[in-house]
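Moderator note: this is an archived Q&A kept for reference. The question asked for a predicted structure of one protein chain; the sequence and the answer are reproduced below.
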Amino acid sequence: MRPRPRALARRRWTSWGTGPLTARLTGAFGPLLFWVSTGLVLYRWLPESVVRGLGRFLYWIGIPLEIYALSRHARFTWQVGLGPIAAIAAVVTGAVLMGILWGLLCWRSPRQPTSPDPTTASESTALDSNIAEVSEHSTESWWWRSPSVGSAAIASMLGNTGFVGLALTPHLLDPGWMALPVFYNLTQNVLGTYGLGVLVASTFGNHGGDPERDRPWWQPLRDVVTVPSIWAFVLGTATQPIPFSPWVEQALDAWVPLTIAIAFVLMGLRLSQLRDWRQLKPAIAPAFIKIFLVPLLAGLVATAAGLDGQLRLAIVLMAGMPTAFAGLILAEEYDLDRPMISASIALSTLAILGTMPLWLWIWG
């Protein structure tokens, strides 16, 4: 006899309060809150060179070693191949949802023509032009500004699957299923950030068509080939049959939580630099798409496709990661709306404290 829906709901809420679910959330969010807060405090005393060096250390050494350790002990089945498919689908879904919202906003709020201010008619033509440009930039809706549209699209597409995703999922998934988040993260970095992300940034950026800012055709390919996380994953997979000495295995296992702590400290340091909140209101839409709509659709599609258990949960968790810091790199390179991406990173990072427990309760 199957239990009634109320009994199932009661059982879920019981496990929420006292069972393994609470322990998993505590194990995931405890380090997140502690180390991010540490980064927020340390920012006052650490110079920018140290913060930048910490990021480069994680990119070239910390995260690759973590991926090596995870891929060495990961279990590979045919289901793991769904990671790249899910990553591509999540990136495209975020872009499509933002495109739909952009079209609706443009349709409901047509662009208003700007007229010169009569009080400045006696001033010089150059000064008039500058004032008109600043006024138009500050009052015009964000969906009529190309750099802001590009920032909103990138904030909706790219998730922080590296620092946050690979740091949280070891606490929320069984160890044997960590291959899927690793595959997901690599796919998003290669095809999401260096692929569709660069395409969107170069299309909507202020200098996207400037030949001096255009990169050679071979440089994106070089960037992809030299990503250290890819080689770490390949080496970790290839060395699975090779036995290591116990102290090496223990060192690799200990490196994973150490990398997680360093990544969260760096997140706190970077969040301390987000001081321009003028784009807070426009950033609500891309943040909502990234951390709620995309993982919700991922869970529904996975369920309709017959996926369940740890496989479905891994896909939903990775799809619901907050906006990636890589968006700031693209915004800097292609002169997009940096305050909007910064606000989206902050909003979505705070919001996962509520959305992650929700996904665990529904699909965990």
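Archived answer notes: The radius of gyration is 22 Å.
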